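Internal tracking record. Fields below are filled automatically when a chain is submitted to the structure queue. Please do not edit lines marked as system-generated. If the sequence contains nonstandard residues, flag them in the REMARKS field before resubmitting.
Queue: standard
Priority: normal
Entity type: single polypeptide chain
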Amino acid sequence: MGIETLSEHRCFGGVQGFYKHASTEIGLPMKFGVYLPPQAQHGPVPVVFFLAGLTCNEETFAIKAGAQRYAAELGLAIVTPDTSPRDTGIEVADASWDFGHGAGFYLDATQEPWAKHFRMESWITKELRDLVLSNFPTRPDRVGISGHSMGGHGALTLALRHPGLYQSVSAIAPICAPSQCPWGEKAFTGYLGTDRAGWAEHDAVELIKSGRRVLPLLVDQGLADKFLSVQLNPQLLEQVCRDFGQPLEVRRHEGYDHGYWLIASVVADHIRHHAGAA
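SYSTEM-GENERATED OUTPUT FOLLOWS
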């Protein structure tokens, strides 16, 4: 699988690059970023995939979070995938900011017209994973996953749905129970149809209820987040983790909103969480 280099930049002794490849799973070109720390010059390093939120792309976290400083210190590579296919030709894909382009929800759609190209789960967990591990000096036995908002939902559900694929998991202000919030209901209806039983396979709370487990979770949440009570619902994740024995640490931060100010403030701890995974 060929990779086209869009740009590369020296950063904290390593290299922040942005790339494109012709995706077989998506059926369209897909973009992604990779930060390689200086340690990667001497051999493979652990890697974390960071899934961004609604309206974001492969550059958002790389430019705004400030994670490279900590990744360089600890020897961790960071992969930042785009959040959806682009230029799909679907007329309604740009009709709203929380569905369609920029809002792939990290699942494989089953409904038309989305099913052909909106195969984000297969792209992230299979094709892009293999592409990164084959073409960048990264360790297949030390792969983590994290994300923000919609991407936090993606990190939690992909880890739960693919046991053993990720050795560390974290999330920042994640959509914890998408079956029970407007963002998730809109996305699931459009991508998966109206059968709510199928939704449960892409809902972290429901997956934990069904017996799925991952390594200990780290979640950060701002208390001034305007989406907290209606869209994010971390209390539902806390409850199901208590009830079913899933290790979880939720850290709440007074005065922090939903944006990258929170991410930049806690990203060092998330990098440490992934770099320190056994």
